[in-house]
Automatic annotation (TrEMBL):
SMART domains: WD40
GO cellular component terms, semicolon-separated: microtubule organizing center; MWP complex
Protein's recorded name: WRP73 protein
InterPro entries: Centrosome-WD_assoc, WD40/YVTN_repeat-like_dom_sf, WD40_repeat_dom_sf, WD40_rpt
Organism in which the protein naturally occurs: Rostratula benghalensis
Source organism phylogeny: Eukaryota, Metazoa, Chordata, Craniata, Vertebrata
PANTHER family: WD REPEAT PROTEIN 8-RELATED, WD REPEAT-CONTAINING PROTEIN WRAP73
UniProt superkingdom: Eukaryota
Gene3D superfamilies, per the entry: YVTN repeat-like/Quinoprotein amine dehydrogenase
Amino acid sequence: GSAQASGVQYRLVIRDASTLQVLQLYTCLDQIQSIEWSSDSLFVLCAMYRRGIVQVWSLEQPGWHCKIDEGSAGLVASCWSPDGRHILNTTEFHLRITVWSLCTKSVSYIKYPKACQQGIAFTRDGRYMAVAERRDCKDFVSIFVCSDWQLLRHFDTETQDLFGIDWAPNGCVLAVWDTCLEYKILLYSLDGRLLSMYRAYEWSLGIKSIAWSPSSQFLAIGSYDEKVRILNHVTWKKITEFEHPATVANKRTVVYKEVEKSPSVETGRLSFPPTRALASSLFSTQSKYDIAQVPVPLQYVKPVADRANPKMGIGMLAFSPDNCFLATKNDNIPNAVWIWDVQKLKLAVVLEQLCGIQCFQWDPRQPRLALCTGNSKVYLWSPAGCVAVQVPGEGDFPIVSLSWSSTGDSLALLSKDNFCVCYLEREEV
């Protein structure tokens, strides 16, 4: 929460999140390909996949450091366990996961992990880990106790080709879903019993994304047919489905359209030659939102059907931390974010941007959504309205992804090679 890590080639830079002052500099053995903080922010993991090496640095003891070398086994993924004292490395060809303990220096092995989009999942309380496995052309799930990595349950799943697993936030139910060639989602209890199976349709591309509501009461399933279906946690039946049509017709939906306006500058304020900051603001186009009158036609892209991973269907969805809203993106309508009211199960707001949505994320403390579209602006929506903020500075800063701090008072904005931090004023409640 209070420090930020960034990797620059071989160097790991730790900065204070409120001042961006450099706190620590570490030099790694090779180019850093991924970084991850431990849950208590005392350690940072740097993975160098090409070398098969992970290096771990301690914030409290700059002299301490740890190097894990997977050797000829290679390395394709590395992550922390929830306790922040074990590292899970997935070796090449998904032959095994090695679990390294920083405390006891012991190693455990988990065999046959499946190469799929989301093959490892921890319960929110950090007590259990589920691993998707594939052996003898069948899919299995193993559930381990994280305190000693003992196997709790092992069961086969009724999937053709398991694609992902995800625990409900309360840790009671594990969702397991199949490849997009088959619409199928299975819900298992902690002891491996099949609670329910849901299929919306057959013979067509199926599930593309899923999200649990923070309360664990709803499971949202986004699919290639451009709909989101919501299941409830009592019967695991569908309670509603959300369509994403090319025209927003409902009068109760507020549609915010991004429009560009050229900046108006009072000539009295101009100094010649203009200051650099003023010059850059003179030529950058600013954005604002207009409220559009329904019906509003949205920009719709017809997907190329015979390509792999066609750009169609619900590619992103996320619940707000207070369970009040669900944000979705239909890849056929690349410039729009849909915000649904979860209590009323109705569409509340659509934001139509001028460019395609790259990323969106909810503020962890309040219902406020940040999004970026690959330009140098960040967009914020809350029930009070929405605003576009230009990143100041010279030159272009194309934002490709963003991430909230855990306190919700700042946002890291990332371009391909740089990052900047956007600080938000705390609203007095």
